[in-house]
Every structure is written in C-alpha cells, then in structure tokens.
Amino acid sequence: MHSKRTIYTLAIGLSAAVAAVYGWTYWAGYKPRPSALALAQRAVGAKTESQRQKAAVALSDAGPEAVVHLRRLLHESRDASVRAVCAQGLANLYDYDSVDLLIEALQDDSPGDRGKLVRMRAAAALSRLWLRDLHFPAAAPPAERRQAVDRIRKMWRDMTNPSVIENLKKSDSYQGPWAELAGRKVPGKGTASPLPTKTEAGKD
C-alpha cells in the first residue's frame, strides 16, 4: 500500500514537472503581436529599407487600426518600397478615404523602377476600390502620366457622391469588409483585383 502511494505521488510530481517545463517553453517562445503603432514606428525607424518594408507589410495585415498609419507612410515615407506596400495595404482594407492620397501616389517621381512600382501599386489600389481597370500608364513619360492623373481625378470627382460609394460596396464584385455584412460569401482576401507583385515593377 505504501509502495503504491509512493508511486502515485511520484507520478503526480513528474506530471507537474512536465507541465511546468512545457508551460515555460511555450511562454518563453511566445511573442505578442506588435501593435499597429509599433509596426508603423519600425516602418519609419528601422535601420535598413528591407526592415522598414517588412514592418510595412506586417502593418498592412494589422487590420483597420493600421489605416491611419498606412496613410501617413504612403504620404511621408522616404522609401518607395514602403509607399508601395502601404498603397496595397489601403486597397486591401478598402479605405475609400485614402483615394486622394492614392491619386497623389500616381505621380510618384522616385527614379527608375522604384517610382514605377509605387505608381503601379497606387493604380492597382484604385482599380480595386473602384472595381474597374484604370489602365494607368505607370511607365509612360511624365506628361502622359499627368494627363492620365487628370482623367482619374475627374472620375473621382464624379464618384464622390456617397450613394456611388455605397453602390460600389453593394456590388457583387466587391470583396471588402462590408461584403460579409451584406450576406455575400467572400471567397478570400485578395480575390477582387489582384495587385502587382514586386517582380512586375520592371515590366511595362
């Protein structure tokens, strides 16, 4: 009887020790998800552009609380790659209040493919928001791009009636956050209007 009690006690002690070790291992390796503000700060202050871009990508996946930071970075970031990511992030969040910033980004004048990437992402973002292909000539000479921007600005002025935006949100093609509220099945994020990848920046 005494032997059985001893074995039982040892078994309980061993189980407790295993649970403690497992718990310590789990919590030691657990890293809470950074806040949108923390990610935005990294996207500005990280040492390398690659690190800043990585932070911007994470920020784009941080949900609605990231919107204000994505707007600011799109407007102010010194890195073309970060601005491009932010344009895509705002499109993924279907933030119609950022349309003016996205139109401004169509005129990004960073040299070479860097500026072209930002312009392509901004045009793709607007295409997603408006559910139409804008056919923006991201690689065209500045004068041709300015004409296209003027055309797009006029389109936006014609669309600023709130009822137009509401109709976009009710469209069967719309895959933004209001789609599920309207009772439509959403196939998955990114299905509405695929945005160009980085490798597409070098293509006309």
Rg (C-alpha, Å): 24 Å
Parts with pLDDT < 50 across at least 5 consecutive residues: 177-204
* Percent of sequence in beta strands: under 5%
Average per-residue pLDDT, rounded, comes to 78
Number of strands: 0
The geometry reads as globular
How far is the N terminus from the C terminus?
Answer: 84 Å
Secondary-structure element pattern, one letter each: HHHHHHHHHH
CATH class categorisation: Mainly Alpha
CATH architecture: Alpha Horseshoe
- Class by alpha and beta content: mainly alpha
The total count of helices amounts to: 10
Could you please say which CATH topology applies here?
Leucine-rich Repeat Variant
* Share of residues in helices: 55-70%
Largest sheet, strands/sense/barrel: none
Number of domains: 1
What does this structure look like?
The chain is mostly helical and 204 residues long. The chain has a single domain, classed as Leucine-rich Repeat Variant (Alpha Horseshoe). The protein has helices spanning 2-29, 36-45, 49-60, 67-76, 80-92, 99-105, 112-130, 142-159, 162-170, 177-181.
